[in-house]
C-alpha cells in the first residue's frame, strides 16, 4: 500500500526461510545478484558502511551509492540508510532509510520493506515526486528479483 509521498511500503512472500532471505539482503555477493551491479559491504552490523554500484564501476555513467547499516538483527531485521554524499555521515535529511522486516511464514518468509526519508531531503515538490516515483518503480522491479534469488538459493541448498 502506498502512503503519502514520503514512504514506500511493500510486502513480499518469499519461498525461502528467514535466514536465507537475510543473507540475500545483507551480503554483497547476493546484493549484486538482485539489486546492484556490484556491492561492497563488510560485516553487516550497525555502523558498517558500503557501496552499491549501478553500472560498471569506474565508467562515467556508473552510479555509486553509499550505504550505512542502521540495524542488523539476523534473521529478523536489516535496515540501512543510503544515498548520502561521500564525506557525510548518513542521517535523516541526507539519506533514505530502508528497513526490511522478515517474518517466518510457514516454510518461507513474509518480507516487509519500508523506505522513508523522501520528505526529509528538503526537495521542492516536483523533485520529491520524481525521486519518490523512481524509487516506487525501482522497488517494484527489484523486490521480485530478491524473492526469486532467495528462493533459488534456498532450493539449491541441501
TrEMBL record:
The UniProt entry, under Gene3D superfamilies, shows: 3.30.530.20
Q: Where is the Activator of Hsp90 ATPase homologue 1/2-like C-terminal domain?
A: 15-149
Q: Which domain of life is it from?
A: Bacteria
Could you say which protein family the record assigns here?
Answer: Belongs to the AHA1 family.
- Give the protein's recorded name: Activator of HSP90 ATPase
Could you tell me which species this protein originates from? Answer: Cellulomonas hominis
